[in-house]
Amino acid sequence: xxxxxxxxxxxxxxxxxxxxxxxxxxxxxxxxxxxxxxxxxxxxxxxxxxxxxxxxxxxxxxxxxxxxxxxxxxxxxxxxxxxxxxxxxxxxxxxxxxxxxxxxxxxxxxxxxxxxxxxxxxxxxxxxxxxxxxxxxxxxxxxxxxxxxxxxxxxxxxxxxxxxxxxxxxxxxxxxxxxxxxxxxxxxxxxxxxxxxxxxxxxxxxxxxxxxxxxxxxxxxxxxxxxxxxxxxxxxxxxxxxxxxxxxxxxxxxxxxxxxxxx
Length: 263
What we know:
Elements: H1 25-47, H2 49-55, H3 60-80, E1 86-87, E2 101-104, E3 107-110, E4 112-114, E5 119-121, E6 125-128, E7 133-136, E8 140-142, E9 147-149, H4 154-181, H5 189-194, H6 211-230, H7 233-236, H8 248-261
Antiparallel strand pairs: 1-7, 2-3, 4-5, 6-7, 8-9
């Protein structure tokens, strides 16, 4: 019986996947904005209060804050482009229904199948929905740098938190020293950068941090909380400089190789 024109076929043709309107643009712009914000407020600090301290013989503040600024900026930029521990994608031929059980540190683990990356994930490996990748020893996705924090860049992340905390503390001390040493001087642009409401109209200076210090202090406070939260994790893995323990990924790889070699 011939099909009529109004008959709907049972098998549908392949449809094009929906277009995603650049989901990485806004997070990338936010990460770039953080770098620009750090450079901008640090430039104001070095151009006004720090310059005044250097001209009056306090060379320790420009040296210390300059070193910490370079360390913080380098850590921030490098963390944006670092590899968190990406595991390469597989294929459907590996068999999503196959059950893999491996032993890690005398404990049995069943490897979970990642339907996005098409492979069995080792323990402590998770799929990041923001980056659409599987990351080894996944900790979290940091929106400030628009990158995942995992096995390969976790120490860089701690270095960024440490540098940001020390830099914000040095910035606060430098601004306070500048306010104390320049309290008898008339109001100037240097004082405006040290604190926005630094003159109350009666010749009294107000002990309040300026836009340079406040901006970096807010980031430093957040960094201090994160640093305290993550400080114990590197030592659980064997310490920052000591020999690390055998990783779950390497143990899983060795276990899978033994399974494939067995008759």
